[in-house]
Amino acid sequence: MRRPFSLTGPIAAFLVVLGSISAFADSITIGSSSTANAFPFGAGTGQFGVYLGQYEQIYAATPFRRPISIGEIAFQTLGPPRFNPPPTWSDTFTLSLGTTAASPASRGTKFLASSTPDLKPVFSGTVTVMSPGSSPFDFVVPLSTPFLYDPAAGNLLLDVVVTAVAEGITPFAAGFSPDTARIFLDLIHRVPTSDGTGLLTRFADTPVAPTPEPSTIALIGFGLTLAGGIWRRRWASRHAGPFATTNV
User: Is 233 part of a structural domain of the chain?
Assistant: First the structure.
């Protein structure tokens, strides 16, 4: 008695091959949380005034181990707003990403947006945090279009233009790190300046199905052809009649 033929084995092998070419979401965190800073998202009042306008942060390419399709950027608030604030915190801004030859150690004191040819707006709108400081990386910026960043092309530039901010002050996790630097507005003199401080930042990858290598495509094709050939031969042997012969 012949055992019934099953495609379970070939299908399982095929799924293993497909699994080997799938990409999974990933994230990378850059910067330090050794101190706190309200620029640019947390300064809605205070002795220096409201932060409205441009802000840039440079991220060194070295922490990025590979190209990444950035689909989300998150920052971390450190507590509830101060100075009679509402229980939530919100900012309205435009955020753009690009690559730059400037580095955290060699950043200059002028905004870099005009000299960044591939600078691309990836978010424009309002971000609201319902309970600041209650969870890590709670200030989440979902990008309208993922940004494909290749560290081999240069360092990463984040450019923000804040147009509205809640009343009060909310501190954000920040600190000095060799992998970050910022260019920001001196609110007293209204001119750009820079230092080695940067907001702690988490970049989240988006799942992307990469184009398989030719060898992988050939392997998949071979597997499907083999499974199909075995199935046809088994089917023929079972339906050819009592006088048929088969080598299978």
Answer: no
* Residues 93, 162 contacting (CB under 8 angstroms): yes
In three-state form (DSSP H/G/I as H, E/B as E, the rest C), the secondary structure along 155-224 is: EEEEEEEEEEECCCECCEEEEECCCEEEEEEECCCCEEEEECEEECEEEEECCCCCCCCHHHHHHHHHHH
Measure the CA angle with vertex 156, ends 154 and 97; round to 5°: 125
Q: How many domains does the chain have?
A: 1
**What's the CA gap between 182 and 198, in Å, rounded?**
6
Is 21 part of any domain? no
H or E, element range at 125: strand 120-129
pLDDT tens for each residue of 87-102:
889 999 999 999 999 9
d(CA 99, CA 86): 37
Q: Reduced to 3 states, what is the DSSP secondary structure of residue 17?
A: helix
Question: Could you tell me the residue range of the domain that residue 150 belongs to?
Answer: 27-205
Q: Which amino acid is at 204?
A: A
pLDDT digits 0-9 by tens, 44-85? 875 557 899 999 999 999 999 899 999 999 999 998 888 766
Q: Which residue matches tokens 């988006």?
A: 206
Task: Provide φ and ψ at 171, rounded to 5°.
Answer: -75, 145
- Indicate whether 235 belongs to any domain: no
- The answer to whether the Cα torsion of 196, 158, 109, 188 is positive or negative is negative
Domain annotation covers residue 42: yes
Q: Which two tokens stand for residue 144?
A: 């309208």
* pTM for the model: 0.73
